[in-house]
Amino acid sequence: MDIGCPTLPAEGGTCPTRPVVARVTVLDGGPAGKPVAEVDTAADGAFRLHLPPGQYAVTGRASLSPTPAKPVPVVVSAGHMTAVTLVFDSGVRLPNAGQSG
Predict the structure, then answer these.
(1) pLDDT by residue for the chain (101 residues), tens digit each?
(2) CB neighbourhood size of 88 (10 A)
(3) How many whole angstroms separate alpha carbon 39 and alpha carbon 85?
(4) Contacts of 41 (CB under 8 A, 6+ apart)
(5) Residue 68 in contact with residue 60, Cβ under 8 Å?
(6) Exposed (0-12), middle (13-18) or buried (19+): which is 4, by Cβ within 10 Å?
């Protein structure tokens, strides 16, 4: 999901989250592990992989984000599905309130 907006409302506020297409990478054992699987998400941001039980970290890259998603630690158990949400940052920020030019 993306937590940024292509444009910001003039009155400020927050941007809605939305699913994005991304390349998801699964790392064995945690954030410093070696890649063991990669998959592209569907248009709704969903993906599915079959992995053996163990500890992993899941990260990804989306074209709208200047940086990859922060790795999410995941424990996979035999016979169970594990949900993972990756958050991508578009880099768009609200201007500093009260700052004069």
Answers:
(1) 544 555 555 566 666 677 888 999 999 987 789 999 999 999 999 999 999 999 999 999 988 777 889 999 999 999 999 999 998 877 666 555 445 44
(2) 24
(3) 14
(4) 19, 20, 21, 22, 23, 24, 47, 60
(5) yes
(6) middle
